[in-house]
Amino acid sequence: MNQKKRIFLSPPHMSGEEERYIAEAFRSNWIAPLGPLVNTFEEKMADYVGTAGAAAVSSGTAAIHLALKLLGVTKGDTVFCSAFTFVASANPVLYEQARPVFIDSERCTWNMSPQALERALDEAERNRNLPKAVIVVNLYGQSAKMDEILAICDKYAVPVIEDAAESLGSVYKGKKSGAFGRFGIYSFNGNKIITTSGGGMLVSDDEDALKKARFLATQAREPAVHYQHEKAGYNYRMSNVLAGIGVAQLAVLDDRVNARRSVFQRYQEALSEIDGIEFMPERGMSNRWLTTLTFDPKKIKTTPGEIIEALANENIEARPLWKPLHRQPLFQDAVFYPHHEDDSVCDDLFAKGLCLPSGSSLTEEEQDRINEVLVRRIQYQ
Ligand SMILES: *Cc1c(COP(=O)(O)O)cnc(C)c1O
């Protein structure tokens, strides 16, 4: 039996200050719903990412859903989505009985291919079926080419929702990741770069829209003592206790970014000599939420699956890259636009890549343990 301490992919990393805010929430009895720490967390997030405002909600998924509602997405509409992502990016499209259309990645960011997007929009315009929105993901911390994507979407007057659940703290073209689209969303799920145990944030420069988001997120309750309701709403707001955790976590976000980037750098130093390994490229400054890499099957005989298994035998958690959404049974009928007609970049990445443990609390000794297994597995294949 293996007694070695478990190394997780991306565990929560508390600063120690969180309990002070939790105690404050308890002392003031602002437990839930809402309360002053929610306002503080929203203001600090908007300040940090550089948007006019922010609305704290119960999850990143809820933030995406609210953004779709605010853009008027309804039954039968189409929404273009990144294909290479976690299912939560596209699930809210299904909540509205709208239809996701998946857009492939490009090699230099692993994110939405501007070429494939343009092809899809051009075809949609000719069919008089432009999407109501485009949801662009910034995978593993790396921003998509937001400048190019926004320019293309502007041409067709289609608004962009930026799924920055994994890229909080990253910078692209001098701007914080998540601040590019009409709406940006972040997640504070347990595995993200900072966590409130569970939670999310919707950001925008459109403060009226954020006001509507807060309204929809609190059961669409009209201002009347007798609880007047004219629309169907949701129970999506963040509690004051969790917002307190968020305020303390946000204060150490830049440290967490630096730590994850150091983890990445150490992997790179330990493994870059191996012919056939390529790390996820970087454009701008990525928070390196997860260190991800691909193995060239012509040069490396072992597979990502075998490496994941070898690591698991040493009580180390590693994962494949996200399985493209158009490959999920859930979306089997969805249309997919590859980068080039016969070159699906995300399918290729999925076949060749994996994610390594990348927590900001990962020690150098733990990382040596991981590298030892990797090098052994690759060299004595
Ligand atoms: C985590 C994640 C989400 C969902 O956030 P939750 O807070 O877990 O709902 C959405 N998109 C991406 C890309 C994610 O990684």
UniProtKB/TrEMBL annotation:
InterPro entries associated with the record: DegT/StrS_aminotransferase, PyrdxlP-dep_Trfase, PyrdxlP-dep_Trfase_major, PyrdxlP-dep_Trfase_small
Transmembrane domains' residue ranges: none
GO molecular function: transaminase activity
SUPFAM superfamilies membership: PLP-dependent transferases
Domain of life: Bacteria
Stored Pfam families: DegT_DnrJ_EryC1
Entry keyword set: Aminotransferase, Pyridoxal phosphate, Transferase
Acyltransferase as UniProt keyword: no
Family: Belongs to the DegT/DnrJ/EryC1 family.
Protein name: Aminotransferase class I/II-fold pyridoxal phosphate-dependent enzyme
Provenance organism: Bacillus changyiensis
